[in-house]
Amino acid sequence: ALAVALLDRDGEVPRAPSRASHVVICDPLDDAEQTWVWRRALGGEVEISVDELRVGMGMAHESASIARARGIAGDPGRLRQVVEQLLSPASRRGIEVEHPTQDLASVVLPEAPRRGLTHALTLARMPEAFGERRGVKILLSGAPGTGKTLSARALAAELGRSLYRVDLATVVSKWLGETEKNLRHAFLAARAVGAVLLFDEGEALMGQRGDVARGSDRYANLEVAYLLQALEAHDGVVVVTTNARGKMDGAFMRRFDVVLELPRPDATGREALWRRELGQAADCLAEGFISDVAHRVELTGGHIAAAARLAHAAAHADSRSLAEEDVLEAIAFEHDKLGGSMSAARFREEAGKAGAKWRN
After folding, report:
1. 79, 108 in Cβ contact below 8 A?
2. In whole angstroms, what is the distance from residue 255 CA to residue 303 CA?
3. pLDDT digit of tens for each residue in the chain (360 aa)?
4. Are 196 and 190 contacting, i.e. CB atoms less than 8 angstroms apart?
5. Which residues, 6+ apart, have CB-to-CB distance to 305 below 8 Å?
6. Which of 49, 59, 122, 268 has its CA 20 to 30 A from that of 135?
7. Is the CB of residue 350 less than 8 Å from the CB of residue 292?
8. 3-state SS assignment for residue 216
């Protein structure tokens, strides 16, 4: 008797020791096959880049049928959304799906890291890979609040892709083999729709391998080894962020095409961040106030955004326009959050004295 196994590319071949077996891989194996699949499914209605949508024949035909019924078969972006909706919920377990809209111009960065992100964007848009290496892998390191996650969102928006943000708390499991299985699902889900895959706080997964002193060490090393191989093989865009670059396993570094250190913003950058986060409400503030705050208070972009939200909330609670005292109080709370040595009350007092020039 003959046993025929129809499998996707990553499926396991079932055992049939008493039968002759024949395995048929149903997923497209290369770019040419993927292009053929979409041409057959869409009937030549639209040309789909194989870098955007990598699915099997069944998924392609089902997606095309739904797209035709909705009248969106000629729109690659909306077709991608259909494919995304058809993905099994289990395949996106531990993934937070985002659809960013802010572009790279909205990210406040110095010239060097901005150019690095532009180069990464160019790599991701190139139609062909160099040599045997596929995909684009980017490492963004820096202190909390320096714009690492925001930069990843901007890259996804510039590429017109979804952002699949991996929730490490859900993906990492104490059970043997579960972490690798969850990671495999994350890579496959991102690959199917061409999403940018984001690992925030990547050092938690890509930590340095150590000597095997107990059984759990061996399993932890196996997880790192699996992630190394998966990162190498993935042909999409992967962004890893970390604020502890020194804790990452050195073997990961050569897998990254672009490695960028995002510094704390200088006074000019902080002023731009304050103006962006406060928006039009800043027009009510005294002339020179924002510039003075930007030069005196060294906060990162994330903390400036948090302080701006709190200042807006204080003004809204009293049904009035934003005032300088709202911003100073919000900064004081951020200092408390960061464990600053100066109390909130003292900060407001000293800032008020220093701000005499914009009060007059």
Report:
1. no
2. 31
3. 677 766 555 555 666 677 777 766 666 666 677 777 777 777 765 566 555 676 677 777 777 788 778 887 777 777 777 777 777 655 566 788 888 988 898 888 999 999 999 999 998 887 654 545 568 999 999 998 899 999 999 999 998 888 999 887 777 777 777 778 888 888 888 887 888 999 988 777 776 555 444 445 455 567 777 888 888 888 889 999 998 888 777 778 888 899 999 999 999 999 999 999 999 998 889 888 999 889 888 889 999 999 999 999 999 999 999 998 899 889 888 887 877 654 555 656 666 665 545 454
4. yes
5. 273, 277
6. 59
7. no
8. helix
Among 144, 143, 234, smallest CA distance to 183 is for: 234
Report yes or no on whether pTM surpasses 0.70: yes
Say if CB 117 and CB 260 are below 8 A apart: yes
Instruction: List all residues 6 or more positions away from 295 whose beta carbon is below 8 Å from its beta carbon.
Output: 267, 270, 271
Amino acid at 150: L
Q: Which of 242, 254, 274, 228 is nearest to 151 (CA)?
A: 242
Q: Quick one: tokens of 287?
A: 């002339």
